[in-house]
Every structure is written in C-alpha cells, then in structure tokens.
C-alpha cells in the first residue's frame, strides 16, 4: 500500500477509537447511577477524561502528516498503557466488581457496561496500532528507496 493510503486508514481507525473511547466516557460519567458515589467511579472518570484528552488533538488535527504521525503514536502508547493498567488489568476489573458488589442492579449494570466498553476500546486500539505499524513500515520503505536513489 502507498503511504497516503495507510495514513487515511490510520486516520479512520483513530476516529473509530475516539468514538469507542467517547462511548466509554459516556458510560463511566453520564450513565453512572445516581446516589452515593464510588471512589472507583471517580478514578475511572479521570482515566477516560485523560484518554479523551490524548486522542482529541490527534483526531481534531485533520489528515495525518509525517509530523502528526509521532503525536498519534504517542497517544496510542499512552492509551494502551491506560487501557491495560487502569481499565482492563486484573486489579482494575476486580476493583470495579468489588465496588459494585452488594449494590443494586443499576450499579452492576454500570460495571458491565464499563467492562464491555473497555473491551470495545481495546479492539479499536489494536486495529489502530496495527495501522500505525503499517504506516511506519511504509515510511521506512520510502526512506530506504530515497537512500537507494540518492546513492545512484
């Protein structure tokens, strides 16, 4: 594939990731059941807000360029870390499940929604990471071709 095509694919997948992340943010913040709050809910709200802040400049910048590729890669690395450590790790999942144990069905439904949303984000992130790797491969191939042409 040519580099321009890979950039377009990556841009599309970054927008899909932002949509999945936004849906998770809605679940965490806006779908949170009323009443007594949970510390874990507040922590999750911070995590998803931070993730949105990472994605927003990358998605809002428009078409990807060589310059913005690094910013996108950095955002993906940070989102991967956040997803793995703060949303999908054994400790994070246990904290959510333990926090809603003994609460009414609204809280348990909220927890299921959060875990499901994190799974959708993981799928979108995986696709975007693969597209990012293809972009870097294309960049490396172009650099190699330019090096070869310059040496002739």
How do the strands and helices of this protein lay out in sequence?
Layout: H1 3-30, H2 39-60, H3 66-87, H4 90-100, H5 105-151
Helix pairs in contact: 1-2, 1-5, 2-3, 3-5, 4-5
Structural features, described:
With about 150 residues, the chain is mainly alpha-helical. The protein has a single domain (about 5-60, about 65-150), classed as Four Helix Bundle (Hemerythrin (Met), subunit A) (Up-down Bundle). Helix content is about 85%, strand content about 0%. It is built from five helices and no strands. The protein has helices at about 5-30, 40-60, 65-85, 90-100, 105-150. Helix 1 runs antiparallel to helix 5, helix 2 (about 40-60) runs antiparallel to helix 3 and helix 3 (about 65-85) packs antiparallel against helix 5 (about 105-150). The two termini are about 25 Å apart. The model has no long low-confidence stretch (mean pLDDT about 90).
Q: Mind telling me which CATH architecture this is?
A: Up-down Bundle
Determine the N-to-C terminus distance. Answer: 25 Å
Count of DSSP-assigned helices: 5
CATH topology: Four Helix Bundle (Hemerythrin (Met), subunit A)
Name the beta content range: under 5%
Shape by Cα distribution: elongated
Number of strands: 0
- The CATH top-level class label: Mainly Alpha
Order of SSEs:
HHHHH
Radius of gyration: 19 Å
What structural category arises from helix and sheet content? mainly alpha
Short structural summary:
With 152 residues, the protein is an all-alpha fold.
Q: What are the main properties of this structure?
A:
152 residues; mainly alpha; Four Helix Bundle (Hemerythrin (Met), subunit A); elongated
